[in-house]
Amino acid sequence: PEEAPVVEDVQPAPAAPPVIDQGAWQPVGTYTPSTSAASDGALHFEKDESVESFIKKVGEPARKIGQKEDLYASVMIAQAILESASGQSQLAQAPNYNLFGIKGSHKGKSATFNTQEDTGNGTMTTIQAAFRAYENYEESFEDYAMLMKEGLSGNSDFYSGVWKTNAKTYEEATKFLTGRYATDTSYNKKLNGLIETYDLTEYDKEKAALPVGTQGFAVPVENYTISSPYGNRGGEFHRGLDMAAAQGEPIYASKAGIVKTAEFHYSWGNYAVIEHEGGMTTLYAHQSQYIVKPGDQVEQGQIIGYVGSTGNSTG
Questions:
Q1: Which end of the chain is more exposed for a tag (fewer CB within 10 A), N or C?
Q2: Residue 1 clears pLDDT 60, i.e. is over it
Q3: pLDDT, tens digit, for every residue of 163-200?
Q4: pLDDT, tens only, 54-98
Q5: In terms of Cα–Cα distance, which of 285, 270, 239, 277 is closest to 255?
Q6: d(CA 54, CA 140)
Q7: Please, what is the average pLDDT of the chain?
Q8: How many C-beta neighbours within 10 Å does residue 232 have?
Q9: Cα separation, 80 vs 86, whole angstroms
Q10: pLDDT tens column, 32-52
Q11: For residue range 90-132, what is the model confidence (pLDDT) as tens digits?
């Protein structure tokens, strides 16, 4: 396995942005680099299903924030893969969702973990530190994007070299991060390799709109087949429409509305209900995980959870 990158441990003044600390987390450990490198110096990785599943979860939030904040979503996703071991580090998992190892607290929430610190003379010592905790992956990306845009205390342009305005390609952005965000001299090669292996540049483009029917409802998943229609089915009335898709595929809100329910049901499994204008509701069952809670206002096309087979489901 490649060694996890070590980030400069910035100690800001009280009003400064949060400290980043990636050095405490385990190496990714899931890649098998090939014996050769590309002509651009990028490392080659064998595709890994756990990484692909993680990308499906964070891809759309990264795309959305990248478009909004003038950042390369591809670079952010690649960094999240490296820094969080594809979402497998304890800090990155629920209920913390911290993908970038940012210290401090976020909206009053934090989680305490052991981490290694340099005493100043090259000696490493283990201490306990508070790390920011988020409601979901999107909040983690938003907070990280703020750091990239606002920089460090006294130097708001510290990360300006990653902005699309200043970096004409993702390669320029990853090169800028090397030695600045991470001291790993191969940091850009690893990021570039991940971007190329998993075609992450797709997330640098605007997302194509989901098909919307005459009643204003969009299809809630992509790349699906109808595995069971609505109506009579084997002597019973099937009240839903079964849309089969790959495990972990994002589930999108069919229409804007307010989340009324998000919980587990013995038959529906992990499910969520959204109430739309006019009183109509939509229910999304058998999710592997829902990422909304009652009272949330959601927009059409917003990710509300991920495809699964919980509850009374055959696949």
A1: C
A2: no
A3: 999 999 999 999 999 999 888 889 999 999 999 999 99
A4: 998 899 899 999 999 999 999 999 999 999 999 999 999 989 999
A5: 277
A6: 14
A7: 85
A8: 9
A9: 7
A10: 434 345 545 667 788 888 899
A11: 999 989 999 998 999 999 999 998 877 766 676 778 888 899 9
Tokens 């055959």 locate to: 314
CA dihedral over 30, 249, 173, 180, signed as positive or negative: negative
Q: How many CB atoms lie within 10 A of CB 102?
A: 23
Q: Could you tell me which residues come within 8 angstroms of residue 155 by beta carbon, excluding any fewer than 6 positions away?
A: none
pTM of the model: 0.70
Axis crossing angle, helix 73-84 with helix 137-150, rounded to the nearest 10:
110
Token duo for residue 136? 């979901």
- At 40 the pLDDT is 56
Residue 251 CB neighbours (<10 A): 26
- For the chain, the DSSP string reads -PPPP-B------TTSPPPB--TTSPP-------SSB-TT-PBP----HHHHHHHHHHHHHHHHHHHHHTB-HHHHHHHHHHHHTTTTSTTTSTTT--SS-BBS-BTTBEEEEEEEEE-SSS-EEEEEEEEE--SSHHHHHHHHHHHHHH-BTTBTTTTGGGBTTT-SSHHHHHHHHBTTTB--TTHHHHHHHHHHHTTGGGGGSPPPPPPB-TTSPBPS-SS-EEEE-SEEETTEEE-S-EEE--TT-EEE-SS-EEEEEEEEETTTEEEEEEE-TTS-EEEEEEEEEE---TT-EE-TT-EEEEE---SS---
Predicted pLDDT at 36: 47
- The token duo for 1 is 């396995």
